[in-house]
Amino acid sequence: KRHILADIAVDLLIERIDDGVPDAAIAAGADFVHIEHRTVIVTDPMLATGGSASDAISMLKAKGVTSIRLMCLVAAPEGVAKVQADHPDVDIFTAALDDHLNEHAYIVPGLGDAGDRLFGTK
After folding, report:
1. What is the pLDDT of residues 37-76, one digit of tens each?
2. C-alpha dihedral (41, 18, 110, 49), degrees to nearest 10
3. DSSP helix/strand/coil, 25
4. CA–CA dist 45, 114 (Å, integer)
5. H/E run at residue 81
6. Are strands 39-47 and 67-75 parallel, antiparallel or unpaired?
7. Residue 114: phi, psi to the nearest 5?
8. What is the spatial distance between Cα 54 and Cα 58, in angstroms, rounded to a whole number?
9. How deeply is 86 buried, as exposed, middle or buried, from its count of CB atoms within 10 A (0-12, 13-18, 19+)?
């Protein structure tokens, strides 16, 4: 039970990446209630190409959200540049900015595939 952040609403937006396609498509969403009146923090452990984050932000803007922040653990310059180009009004917070993306759109040096690590898919 949440006592410290009792007034915080938490919803979930799930995205998936098809094998071989570096940008994600929204696979499942939530029926957000009064989300247009809230500040939304989009979290993405790895901001690689920026496609998933940009898609999620676009979906939120389509629902009327005007106050959005993006929070990541590790980011690549290419992903930061895409989100900044697509959504210059969204502030990006990241714990680490790595060097670049490789030919497979993986962050270098990176941490490996966060989704695979979380869900044991590989």
Report:
1. 888 889 888 899 999 899 889 988 988 999 999 999 999 9
2. -60
3. strand
4. 7
5. helix 77-86
6. parallel
7. -60, -40
8. 6
9. middle
For 37, the token pair is 């009146």
Nearest Cα to Cα of residue 42 among 30, 54, 25: 54
> Where do we find the tokens 């190409």?
49
Q: Are 51 and 19 in contact (CB under 8 A)?
A: no
Per the CB < 8 A criterion, the answer to whether 93 and 71 are in contact is: yes
Which amino acid is it at 69? Answer: R
- pLDDT tens-digit profile of 17-41? 555 444 444 544 455 677 888 888 8
